[in-house]
What does this fold into?
Amino acid sequence: MDDELRRWAATWKKMEAFDMAIVRRAQSAYRTEAVRQLLEVVGLGVGVVLVAAKTASTLAPGDVSVADGLRIGMVWSALVIGGGVIVRSARQRTKSQTLLADTPQALVSDLVRVHERELQLWVGKRALIATGFLAVVALALGALAASRGMAANEPFGAVWRPLGFVVVALGALGVFGRRRVGFLRRELRGLLDLQRELDAND
It folds into this structure.
């Protein structure tokens, strides 16, 4: 990818009408996407290992309660959905790379696709359904942990800490997501304007 960007940079230097800042924006966007996908894969892998270990320890005694079975099922379902989202995103990125060409128009078009892919992860119908399911699972697990803590007469903080953490995490995700979506939409508007200008200059 860096070699391709260097070639694009050389092409853009020949075009007095456009600024090299678009190349730096492309570098930033590609790196952000690569880091995000790496974190997604690492997070999924760690989650699978932890959940598998917890599942094995829960099933080892042989007497599994309905609550334990429900909790295990919800967590594994969440991991499967997360894995599906990651695989779909990776396929889209691979498909997009096959369309790359050594032209300014191709760079802008691919940058548009990069931002559209991330935007779909935030506001796409499938993404919203998956996020809603994962949020319900997280809240349900927090509520189960709180109910078990209350039944065991644990201290107030220990009882409500898991559920409170889930609520705070979901709130932080919502705030970050709203700001990120606003940024992506502004970037897309600017890129589409630039794309139209490039097409008009052909």
